[in-house]
Amino acid sequence: MKIAIIGCGNMGMAFANSFIQYNLVQKEDLLLIEKNQERGTVLQEQKAGVVVDTISAKISGVDLVILSVKPQDYPSVASEVAGLLLPNQIVLSIMAGIPIAKLQASLQHDLIVRAMPNTPALLGMGMTAFAAASTVGLADVRKVENLINSTGRAVFLEDEALIDAVTGLSGSGPAYFFYLIKSMIDAGVSMGFDPAMSALLVKQTMLGSYHLMQTSDKSLDELIQAVASKGGTTEAALKTFADFQVGEGLQKGIFAARDRASELAK
Ligand SMILES: NC(=O)C1=CN([C@@H]2O[C@H](COP(=O)(O)OP(=O)(O)OC[C@H]3O[C@@H](n4cnc5c(N)ncnc54)[C@H](O)[C@@H]3O)[C@@H](O)[C@H]2O)C=CC1
Ligand SMILES: O=C(O)[C@@H]1CCC=N1
Fold first, then answer.
1. Residue nearest to atom 7 of ligand 2 (CA)
2. What is the pLDDT of residue 265?
3. Which domains does the chain have, with CATH numbers?
4. How far lies 172's CA from each of 34, 61, 65, in Å?
5. Ligand 1 and 49: CB distance under 6 A
């Protein structure tokens, strides 16, 4: 398979490196299009693939074109890519917000798959949801799914409209997790621990709790109850969270991320 990646930043290269790692593409068949000279030089030094700095007719020779620039950079990319695509090429967009219909119109191209990954894809532990234009055949959907599976887990969505919700939940989700951990570490420092000790206490707690959640038969509510003794310390913390509407605040943040994804399409 031959693949071109337009925009080789964090996510573009997370995908590229996973494909290489699992031998889904050979480096000589991986065209890395990166506008930023410094970034391009780094990729060249890493021998990550065939690195170029401009979009050219070379993309007509690949099976799959991945769009991984920021949504704000997409309009200029679209005008350069439109006209270079052959009808049987697949375009995979991982850009937040931009719907399949808009991609089809701006690229004058039918075969579009739209995906929303997240940064743990860097470790092959990503979570990606994807949807495809009705014109993309099952064999092509499977090809894209196999590629995404090299970056972690993939789920196919019949309803493309849910991709913005995925963006708010799992696309941006790693940042919420890091935010929570950082807040807990900061609390530890406020209570007198040095930052390294506080980070150890918090990170190991989160790691152990994740595995407990994954292996236990108990629901999340039951797991919470198992920690919160009646009249005890956890109960005091949970009551404070309720008073400050921490859960509601988190949910409002997720809805804001989803809504921002919709705005990025405009
Ligand atoms: N970072 C994240 O957690 C996630 C990002 N995304 C989406 O992935 C896309 C990329 O995000 P990141 O990798 O974080 O951004 P990034 O800024 O790390 O990478 C974008 C790259 O595109 C390059 N670029 C811009 N215009 C170009 C052009 N005309 N030709 C070639 N290269 C060009 C930039 O120089 C940059 O290296 C965005 O659309 C974002 O919505 C999706 C899921 C998660
Ligand atoms: O913040 C963003 O816009 C991108 C999309 C999902 C995660 N990062």
1. 172
2. 81
3. 3-163 (3.40.50.720), 173-264 (1.10.3730.10)
4. 24, 33, 24
5. no
- By alpha-carbon position, which residue is closest to atom 18 of ligand 1? 9
List pocket residues of ligand 2, CB cut-off 6 Å: 96, 167, 171-172
Interval between CA 11 and ligand 1 midpoint (Å): 7
The Cα 99–Cα 113 span in angstroms is 10
For residue 223, what pLDDT is reported?
A: 98
Tell me which residues of the chain have a pLDDT lower than 70.
none
Q: How far is the CA of 110 from the centre of ligand 1 (A)?
A: 23
pLDDT 10s digits, 221-238? 999 999 999 999 999 999
The residue to which tokens 């021998």 are assigned: 47
Rounded to an integer, what distance in angstroms lies between the CA atom of residue 160 and that of residue 157?
Answer: 6
Is 160's C-beta closer than 6 angstroms to any atom of ligand 1? no
Q: Is 81 in the pocket of ligand 1 (CB under 6 A)?
A: no
Which own/partner pairs from 52-61 qualify as long-range (CB within 8 Å, at least 24 positions apart)?
55/6, 55/80, 55/81, 55/84, 56/84, 57/84, 58/4, 58/31, 59/4, 59/6, 59/31, 59/33, 59/84, 59/85, 60/84, 60/85, 60/86, 60/89, 61/2
pLDDT for residue 206: 98
ipTM of the complex: 0.99
Q: How far is the CA of 191 from the centre of ligand 2 (A)?
A: 33
Ligand 2 pocket: which of 10, 68, 167, 169 to mutate (most atoms within 8 A of CB) = 167
Contacts of 48 by beta carbon, 8 Å cutoff, 6+ apart: 8, 13, 16, 17, 20, 27, 30, 32
